[in-house]
Amino acid sequence: MRSVLLGSTALVAAASITGAAQAAQGVQLGLGGYYQAAAGILFSQDDGTGEPGHNTRDVVFRQDVEVHFKGETKLDNGLTVGARIEMEGQQSDDQIDEVWAYFKGGWGQVRFGDDDDAYEQLSYLIPSASKGLFGVDSPHFEFANNRNGAGNQAQTNATIFRLSGDATKVLYFSPTFAGFNFAISYAPDRFGEDQYSGFVTGNNPGGTSFSSNTNQLQDVFAAALNFGHDFGGFKMQTGIGGGFGKWENPAPGQDDTSYLIRGHLQFSFDGFTIGGAGLYQDNWRGGAAVPDVNRWVAGIGGTYNWAAWTVGLAWSHGNYEVSSNSDDDTLDIVEATGSYDLAPGISIDAMIGYNQYINDSNATANDHTWEAGMGFNIGF
What is the mean pLDDT of residues 247-274? Predict the structure, then answer.
């Protein structure tokens, strides 16, 4: 399968480049990105000794900033060639977030570089009025101290857990046929991000990375299929995706494979958006000295938009097997969100929410928190 994927994408790209491949002009560099910031407050949280709220603040300021360098050009033969580099706007151990190049035409798009798995590329989250700042699954900002208790497994619920992260990979995106489109991807190494021909540990020039690292997946394949249609003002978006990989150094007796499947369904009509999303991952703790365990997340939500205002309400539930099939930690999140658009790409967002984390084996690590936040998004 690996050779088929790589060979197919190479043939498509090579066939498209054949012929007069000159461009009227070279790639022109452009800038983009976003600045997001928020202030959060906890109205109540468990604060007994050893509990998640112990010795933690009730107020926090956060920001998330990225600058995107991007450019493309169209060749005389119709092929479009481009590249994108996403740089973290704050000091980070991984200063360059994602970086990739692409070739696209009427046959679709081939992308190569540090980017997300195919199923994440085509995913829809549980509806939220916020422009990415707040939400019950995969938000940029979460203030509750769910992970401060010993053994806790999740800070927030997510319906797009990453199998290969931003590891260097090859992806193919199809054109849309009758509302359907799909994507596939392959990454040889879960932590293969930022690979280059320099003298770095595990990837010397001409060499390859290790295949025996603990808690690391290799040979990660992923795919997704989406369908969208407008039924005379009643819009539907639905899709399913997933992937699998092999643990490089599993615990004795542990299955060496892990697979993931996710899906979403949304309806939009008369200013309303209602939908849900869910995810299941088998054998999610690689290298741990425990039996094979799984995790799943599901939730539902809705929003209503009028003029520049959007409001929403959503709920998600996460179930995380920790050390056995009978040791399940759970996290429930309920949030009301709101957003006001000041201008295209500029919004003020707010939320109020409740988090309940239940640690199955350690009751002192349970967490019950009311929280609120306000922030802004500036896209550029």
Answer: 91
The DSSP symbol for 203 reads -
- Residues of the chain with pLDDT > 70: what percent? 83
Q: Reduce the secondary structure of 39-94 to three states and give it as a string.
A: EEEEEECCCCCCCCCCCCCCEEEEEEEEEEEEEEEEECCCCEEEEEEEEECCCCCC
Who wins on pLDDT, 323 or 309?
309
The torsion of the CA quartet 137, 172, 185, 114, rounded to 10 degrees, works out to -80
What DSSP letter does each residue of 126-164 carry, written as one string? Answer: SP-SSSSSS-SSS-S---S-GGGSTT---SS--S---SS
Within 10 A of 180 (CB to CB), how many other CB atoms are there? 14
pLDDT for 209: 76
**What is this structure's pTM?**
0.87
Compute the distance between CA of residue 79 and CA of residue 23 in angstroms, rounded to an integer: 9
Domains, the chain, ordered by start? 2-16+40-200+220-379 (2.40.160.10)
